[in-house]
Amino acid sequence: MLIVPEKLIADLVSAEDAFAAVEATFAAMAREEAYNFPVVREALGEGRQYGFKSGLDRAGGMLGVKAGGYFPGNAGKGMPNHQSSVYLFDPETGRPTAMVGGNLLTALRTAAASAISIDRLARRDAKVLGMVGAGHQAAFQLRAAARVRRFEKVIAWNLHPEMLPKLGEVAAELGLPFEAVPLERMVEADVIVTITSSPAASLMAAHVAPGTHLACMGTDTRGKQEVEPALLARARVFTDEVAQSVTIGEAQHAVAAGLIAAADITPIGAVVAGLAEGRQSEAQITLFDGTGVGLQDLAVAGAAVRRAEEFGLAIAVEV
Ligand code: NAD
After folding, report:
1. pLDDT digit string (tens) for 19-65?
2. Could you tell me which CATH number the domain at 2-106+295-316 has?
3. Which InterPro entries does the UniProt entry name for this protein (predicted)?
4. Which terminus of the chain is more exposed, N or C, with fewer CB under 10 A?
5. Does residue 69's CB lie within 6 angstroms of at least one atom of ligand 1?
């Protein structure tokens, strides 16, 4: 099998590579050529979480699992709190084929998902990008969003305002004016990305103007919530995978409240594959519930392995 260490990923997989790999995977899911296995996620105590996201892509010849979790004590030991790695297997024989560092890949595949939703669903003339959240992942989401629309300004809110200047530096790198605003001013945004670990809604339906596209990316577990459920009732809702959206995604709350049903949610892959309509009018609110699926991880890990082999950087071991 081949090993591709975490430290090589930055030189092997770009945001563009991740976008292409994840978009192809979403389309394969919609064509039922690829599917995710049920997610396993366990609380280990003291805030630690660990889980496994896995799947099979018949068309892409990928079988594998991402093992990963959140370890809040790591920062104090000089390590990232999020730790993950991806394991790939030959779908014909079950032989392990690769082990790939998964930390940067997770950030890239998550940013790619929201960018794909913006590319497919936001109004073409979107000018103002609203960011709700300013943690580790927010910088990746901002960079990826800026690749798919000609934004002229970034407005941002974060529960912990001291984190905003760092996100402002990313906007400055991209040549975009940046302003910290109260949540009420998100009504000025054409596109809003939410990327927080919030346990209760911050963004309310009244904070969102007609015609806005939202990419809600923070809610990936039961009990997390970023937006008011009434917003999903007002919007056309899309997701990476409906089964995850209604159980661990942002839609879990609107579904539990009886405001929307699973049948109201469109997989983004169906839009990519030309099997479903995207935005239907300039005034429609579109909302992408990005829950994070295992196939996204396999797609970017596969891209990393191919590039590592091409550059002669993959480490071969016998298992
Ligand atoms: P982080 O710890 O670096 O940042 C957390 C963010 O949430 C910060 O902006 C913080 O201010 C904010 N926050 C914390 N408590 C809050 C509260 N009570 N109300 C509102 N905001 C609050 O984490 P990160 O790596 O940036 O990840 C952000 C979220 O995205 C996490 O919930 C993570 O699990 C999730 N995530 C989802 C995917 C996916 O595929 N959907 C992938 C990666 C991460």
Report:
1. 999 999 999 999 999 999 999 989 899 889 999 999 999 988 999 99
2. 3.30.1780.10
3. BhcD-like, NAD(P)-bd_dom_sf, ODC_Mu_crystall, ODC_N
4. C
5. no
